[in-house]
Design brief:
The protein is mainly α. It is built from 18 helices and four strands. It is globular, with a radius of gyration of 22 Å.
Length: 452
C-alpha cells in the first residue's frame, strides 16, 4: 500500500465506516490528550515553548513580504509539547512504539480552529491520522540492533499531515502531497532530555505546515502533466520502500483499526516503567511502606536499562527513571503528575527510596519485545525476607487490561480541575455531547482563561 493508496483511503474514510470500538477509543484519546495537554501546560517545557512561539508575532523579518502575525505551526508546536510534557500520553507497541495522539489530536484541533468542524469530522480525521502514523512508524522500526530508531516525531508528522488535510476537507491529491511534504521535512531526533522528548512538538508543526503548503499548491504539477517515477534510492515515503510491499501490518489499513490496540497511561512516566510500578502498587496495597523496604531490584529488557537516574535533574529525567517513579509510588501510592513533577525532584522521601533501587538486564524479557515491556521486582525487606511478585508483561491500560471509565474520568479531573472546576465540567460535557470544534475551543478557554 503506497502513499497514493493511503491518501485515497484517508480521503474516503467516513464516520459510518469506522467500527464502534475504534470510535470509542478515539473519543477516549481525544479527551485524554486534551486533558493531558492542559495539565502539561504549566511544565517548564511547555512554558518555554509558549514564550518562544509567542514571540513569533511579527518581530522576525522574512525574505518575503506579508509575514503572519500568528502562525498555525506555532500553535501546533506549543499544543503538542504540552500534550507530551507529562509523559501521560497514549502509545502503541507494534506501531513503532510511538505516542500518536500527542501529535495527531493537537494537529486536528489547531487545523480546525479557524472554522466550525463537526465532532464526527474531528474524530474521523483523528482516527485517519492515527492509522497512518502507526503504520509509518511500524515501517521505521529498526530491523536490527544497529539500525537507527525513528521515534514519534518522524512518523507522527506524516500522520498529522494526513489528519490536518482530512479535517480541512482536502482531496486525495492534497492529502498525498501533505504526507509527502511532511515526510521530507519530518524531524528525526530521538530522545533528548530535558524538554525535547521525541520531537513531538516539531512533528505537529511540520504536519500542519505541510498540510497548508499542500493546500497552496506545493508539490503540485500542471494539469495533464504526469510526475516521473522517483529514483529508487529516494522513495517518496516509507510506504514506497521495498520492505513495505506485502507487510501485513501496513496492508491491514481499512480492515484493522490499530487505535483499538493502543494503550492509555495511568502513570505519568515512560511506559517501560509501568509494569514495575503496577507490581509495587499491588505490594503497597497489601501494606508495604517505604520504611519496610531495604532495597528494590528491577529486572527489565535491554531497551530500558538506561532508566537509572536516582537523583533526576529535570522532569524528563524523572519520567525516565525506575528509581524515581518507584520511589514516588512507594511514598505516595501514586505516580501521577502530582508525584512525577518538577517541585518533587528534591523530595527527600522519594529520593531516599530512589537511592535503594537498582536496575538490571534480564535477557528473558527481551523475548517479549515489542509486544510487551516486561519487568520483575525483588524487594528486600528491612526486617528480613524478600518479596518476589510474579514477573509482569501486561501493564494497566493495555488492551488486555484497559482503564475503566471511572479511572479515565479521575485522570481527566486531576489534570483539568486544578485549572478550573467549572471549566472541567464544561469541557467534559461538550466532549460527551459531541460538540463541534468551536464548542471544544470555547470549553478549553473556560479552563485556561484564554479570552481570545
Amino acid at each position: 500500500m503506497n502513499s497514493t493508496e493511503v491518501a485515497l483511503y484517508v480521503s474516503t474514510l467516513t464516520a459510518g465506516s469506522i467500527p464502534d470500538g475504534a470510535r470509542r477509543r478515539a473519543r477516549e484519546r481525544l479527551r485524554d490528550t486534551i486533558a493531558t495537554a492542559l495539565g502539561g501546560a504549566t511544565t517548564t517545557a511547555a512554558r518555554t515553548a509558549e514564550r518562544t512561539m509567542a514571540a513569533d508575532l511579527g518581530e522576525f523579518r522574512t525574505l518575503g513580504p506579508g509575514a503572519a502575525t500568528r502562525t498555525a505551526s506555532a500553535a501546533a508546536f506549543v499544543s503538542s509539547v504540552a500534550a507530551s510534557a507529562l509523559d501521560f500520553d497514549d502509545g502503541h507497541y507494534l506501531g513503532g512504539a510511538i505516542h500518536p495522539s500527542s501529535v495527531i489530536v493537537p494537529s486536528v484541533l489547531v487545523a480546525a480552529s479557524t472554522r466550525p468542524v463537526s465532532f464526527e469530522a474531528l474524530l474521523t480525521a483523528q482516527i485517519a491520522g492515527f492509522e497512518v502514523a502507526v503504520r509509518v512508524a511500524h515501517l521505521l522500526w529498526p530491523r536490527d540492533e544497529t539500525a537507527r530508531w525513528f521515534c514519534t516525531g518522524t512518523a507522527g508528522a506524516v500522520g498529522a499531515a494526513a489528519a490536518a488535510a482530512k479535517v480541512r476537507g482536502g482531496d486525495a491529491d492534497t492529502i498525498r502531497r501533505s504526507m509527502l511534504i511532511a515526510w521530507s521535512h519530518a524531524p528525526t531526533a530521538a530522545l533528548q532530555f530535558p524538554s525535547v522528548k521525541e520531537a513531538i512538538g516539531w512533528s505537529a508543526a511540520t504536519g500542519l505546515t505541510a498540510c497548508r503548503l499542500a493546500e497552496n499548491g506545493w508539490m503540485s504539477l500542471p494539469a495533464g502533466v504526469d510526475a516521473p517515477a522517483p529514483p529508487a534510492i529516494f522513495p517518496p515515503t516509507p510506504l514506497e520502500e521495498a520492505h513495505a510491499s506485502g507487510d501485513p501490518f501496513v496492508g491491514s489499513l481499512g480492515q484493522v483499526f490499530e487505535i483499538e490496540r493502543s494503550y492509555l497511561k495511568p502513570h505519568a512516566a515512560c511506559r517501560y516503567t509501568h509494569t514495575a510500578v503496577d507490581a509495587l502498587a499491588d505490594l503497597r496495597a497489601d501494606g508495604l511502606r517505604p520504611e519496610h523496604i531495604r532495597s528494590i531490584r528491577v529486572a527489565t529488557h535491554r531497551g530500558a536499562t538506561f532508566l537509572t537516574h536516582d537523583r533526576p535533574p529535570s522532569l524528563e529525567h524523572a519520567q525516565y527513571s525506575y528509581p524515581f517513579v518507584l520511589g514516588a509510588m512507594a511514598v505516595d501510592g501514586a505516580a501521577g503528575p502530582q508525584q512525577i513533577a518538577e517541585h518533587r525532584l528534591t523530595d527527600p522521601a522519594i529520593l531516599d527510596l530512589a537511592a535503594r533501587v537498582s536496575v538490571v538486564h534480564d535477557p528473558e524479557l527481551d523475548t517479549h519485545l515489542p509486544h510487551h515491556y516486561g519487568t520483575s521486582l525483588e524487594v528486600v525487606l528491612a526486617g528480613g525476607g524478600t518479596l518476589r511478585p510474579e514477573p509482569r508483561l501486561t501493564a494497566r491500560g493495555d488492551t488486555e487490561a484497559p482503564l475503566d471509565e471511572a479511572t479515565l474520568d479521575a485522570k481527566f479531573a486531576s489534570l483539568v480541575e486544578p485549572l478550573s472546576v467549572d471549566g472541567a465540567d464544561t469541557l467534559r460535557q461538550v466532549l460527551a455531547d459531541d460538540g463541534d470544534s468551536e464548542a471544544i475551543w470555547r470549553a478549553i478557554a473556560t479552563c485556561t482563561g484564554d479570552a481570545r
